[in-house]
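Q: I'm writing a short explainer about PilZ domain-containing protein for a general audience and would like to include a description of its predicted shape. Could you first generate the structure from this sequence?
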Amino acid sequence: MFSSEVQLRDDKGRRSAPRRAAAFDTQFRAQVGASRSPCRIIDISCGGARLMLYQQLAPETSIRLSLPGKGLVDAHIVWADGREAGCRFDSPLDDATVTKLQADSTERGGRA
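A: Of course. Here's the predicted structure. Afterward I'll give you a sentence or two in plain language.
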């Protein structure tokens, strides 16, 4: 998709929040006590993010994602396709946080 805004699907397959293109590296943990694993956020919205992973995760896996300037955010995988996965945040981010993450990504050379 070439648009800088994509929509996150709700439980019925409909998108519930606009996603914004982003490209930045971060880390996540798939379980308490597990080591951190690298990932790349491809796009993000108030409700979730699309991730490029270096390992496969199954849907319904709970993760703790590190977001620059926000800290750790609890989420769960809602879909996975090879090394890409979509996660839904357990508590939605505010619009200002998403805007800042996307803007910071653009400044670091990410696509937007």
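A: For your explainer, you could say: The chain has one domain: 16-107.
Q: Perfect, that's easy to follow.
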